[in-house]
Amino acid sequence: MIVLDTNVISEAMKPEPDPAVRAWLNEQSAETLYLTTVTLAELMFGIAAIAVSQGYQVASRDMATFEAANVGVVNPWEG
């Protein structure tokens, strides 16, 4: 089991991630990679902060978390 920290996930999500981070992640088996609830919350907070500052809407099933951060939310899975 490998627990990934927020900075690793954030780096991997960049348009051009650090080659060493990309290579390391590619070497890992997906079944061994995990996130903590703290990391997940930090990532969601970061997404919400960007959305608010840029006036974006977020597409998510997790409406309550983003609505609490005053982010416009669209749930594409809801009819």
What are its keywords?
79 residues, alpha/beta, Rossmann fold, two-stranded parallel ribbon
Explain this structure to me?
By secondary structure, this protein is of the alpha/beta class. It has a domain at 2-54: Rossmann fold, CATH 3.40.50.1010. The protein contains 4 helices and 4 strands. The protein has helices at 6-13, 19-27, 37-54, 63-68; strands spanning 2-4, 33-35, 57-59, 72-74. Helix 4 (63-68) links the parallel strand 3 and strand 4 (72-74). The longest helix is centred in the middle third of the chain and has 18 residues, at 37-54.
How do you describe this structure in short?
With about 80 residues, the protein is α/β, with parallel strands linked by helices. It is built from four helices and four strands, in the order E-H-H-E-H-E-H-E. The strands form two sheets. The chain has a two-stranded parallel sheet. A two-stranded parallel sheet has the order 3-4.
Shape: elongated
CATH superfamily of the domain at 2-54: 5'-nuclease
Mean pLDDT: 82
Q: Please state the CA-atom Rg, rounded to the nearest Å.
A: 15 Å
Largest sheet: 2 strands, parallel
Helical region count?
4
The CATH class of the domain at 2-54 is Alpha Beta
The rounded distance between the terminal residues' Cα atoms is 38 Å
The run of helices and strands is: EHHEHEHE
Q: How much β-strand is present in the residues?
A: 15-25%
Structural class, by secondary structure, is: alpha/beta
The CATH topology label of the domain at 2-54 is Rossmann fold
What are the low-pLDDT stretches, counting only 5+ consecutive residues below 50?
none
What is the assembly state of the chains in this entry? single chain
The helical percent reads 40-55%
Largest sheet strand order: 1-2
